Structures are given as C-alpha cells and as structure tokens.
Amino acid sequence: MILKIIGFILLAIVVAFVARSFYVSRPLFKEQMSVGPIAAYELAQPTQALSFARTLDGKSLLVTTMTREGIEGIDLAAATGRTDAEPLGFLRALGDDAIAALMSGDAVAYDWDALGVPFDTNSKIIAAGTNFLAHAEETGLEDGPFLFPKLSAPTPWQAPVKQRTRLDYEVELCAVAIDDIGLAKQGRFGFVLCNDLTDRWALLRDIDLNQPLGLTGFPEAKGGEGMLPMGAILAVPRDGEFYKQIKLGLSVNDRLRQRSSAGLMIWDAPSIAQKALSMCEADYMLGDEVIRIADCDGLARGTAILLGTPEGVAFQMPNVWMAWAYLRRGDRVLTYGTHLGVLRTQIQ
C-alpha cells in the first residue's frame, strides 16, 4: 500500500512537471506575423534620426526611403567625394546637418538582399542580460541587469543560422558607439536591430551559480559563428530619447513570440557603457580562459552594445529538456524594430 501511494505521488509529480513544461513553453501572444509591421519600414524623420545602410560590396548609403521591397539611398562617396569605409565615417567627418542636406539628392533603389551589416566593429561586443523587468521575471533572474561579452561577429540580416542543442532567440535593440567613450565620458549612439541567439544547453552546462551572473556560461552559450544576426538599417538619432519610440517584436514560423517597447529597458546604452568600463578588470570565463568585457582605456568607436530582450523567449527552466520548444532546423524567425526593418533568419 505504501509503495502504491509513493508511486502515485511520483506519478503526480511527473505529470505536474510535464504540464508545467508545456505551459511555460506556450507563446505569450495569439497573433500570427509573417511580415514585419508597417512601422518597421517607416523611415525615421531626418529631424529625429538619420538612417544609413551599406551594400554587401561596401557602398555606404544615406537612406531616403524604406519599403518592404527595399530602400532608396544616396551613395555617400559619390555625393561627398570622400572614401570613408562605413556610413559612420561620413557622419563623423561631415556632421548631421551636412549629411541631412544630402537627403534631397538623387537616390538609387536597392533590394534588401543587396544590403549587409551597416557598420564596422573591431572591438569587443557588450551585452546586457535581464534588462527588461518582464524578461527577468519569466526566467527567474530578478537580481537586476548584468553584463556579459557577446563573442560573435555580426552577420547580415538574412544570414542563415546553424542549429544548436537548445537554440533560443532574443529580439534586441543594439546600440553602436559613434565616438570613443571613456569613464565618465558619455558617448552618442546609433541603433540597429539584432537577435541575441543563445544555446541554453551550453549556458546551463557551463554556468557557475556561485559566481555573479554573466561571468560564466554566457560567453560560451551566447558566442560563436552566426549567433548575432544584425539589421541592415542603422538609425542615428538627434537626441537620446529616440530609442523609446522603438517597438520590438519576433515571430517563429509566423507565430508571434515577443513584442514590447525599447522604452521599457532598465539601463540605457550610456549606462551600460559606463558599467562595462567599471567592470573592465572582471574575470569572465570562456572555459578555462579569462576574458575581459571591455578595455579599461575606453570603448572604441563602433563598439556594439546589445541592450537586452523583452519577455517571450523560449527558455524556461522546466522546459530545457524539451528540444521541440527551441529553434530547430527549418524554423523561420522574423525579427522587427520600428524604423529598423526586419531580420529573416532560417535555422539550418
């Protein structure tokens, strides 16, 4: 009799655990989304922000029109006689007003497939975890935002991604430092859409919960080839409040999974930059290797900062055993941001 009772209790626990796993894996939204919303293709007004793109063959463009089919843009080299390697080089050299004055020039149409990553970054990439309160609550990590290094090179907006053991998505707004930044020296940032992909299995395998969050597990689980798809549009705002109007969202196989506002971030880009510099001597672990999140001398221009994701990611602790709850071969991920276009990611 006692064995039957124990067996019944164990069965009830297993059933409850499985039911909980399925429950937390459900999408938060009922909507379907196979194309980005209109707002994703609404070009920011030049009085608010200048928008840039770069072709796969390296041509820097000032974007004048954006639609679902592509963009129209002005070749900055042809318009200015300069030979800067990236759009931000033209902006630094000429300034906002001189660049904005080019908007009335002759623009050429480009398909989205002709566009790549719109800026250069040769420095370390910094990322923020649990920078949205709702995401912190859904993952049970409620001690406040933390930082980790994103050890991936940006790939274009339509680049395919290889499957990992428990591959998870995270729509994010990515900030790009326009100028060099130092301790107590605030910098200006542009913004681009990105997806902070994660191998949750590697994260749980390598994390040391006796260490502060971010120092272990995250460098391995967040890094690697193809783990940072990045949008084709770089918006450089005139003021620091621009990002608050950006809405972010993501669907998997046309089912909406994430939708929120960048204005709900806890730390903004300048705050994260200063926090990273204050942690420049912290020991982040990639296996047995010690790495640093930032150079103590400052953040170089072009440094990218991932600003965190809202709620709706695949990962919940009870469902890590469920491979189908994560991205699998053949899955299609659509990511969007207001004024920033979309990412289309095919899992291989």
User: Shape from CA axes?
Assistant: globular
Note the main sheet: 5 strands, antiparallel
Category by helix and strand content: alpha+beta
Catalogue the unreliable spans: none
Rounded to an integer, what's the Rg over CA atoms? Answer: 21 Å
Order of helices and strands: HEEEHHHEEHEEEEEHHEEEHEEEEE
Multimerization state: single chain
Helix % is 10-25%
Number of strands: 18
Distance between the termini: 52 Å
User: Which strand order spans the largest sheet, edge to edge or round the barrel?
Assistant: 4-3-2-1-11
In DSSP terms (H or I, runs of 4 or more residues), the helix count works out at: 8
Q: DSSP strand (E) fraction? A: 25-35%
Mean pLDDT: 93
Notes on the protein architecture:
The chain has eight helices and 18 strands. The strands form five sheets. A five-stranded antiparallel sheet has the order 4-3-2-1-11. Strand 14 and strand 15 form a beta hairpin. It is globular, with a radius of gyration of 21 Å. The termini are far apart.
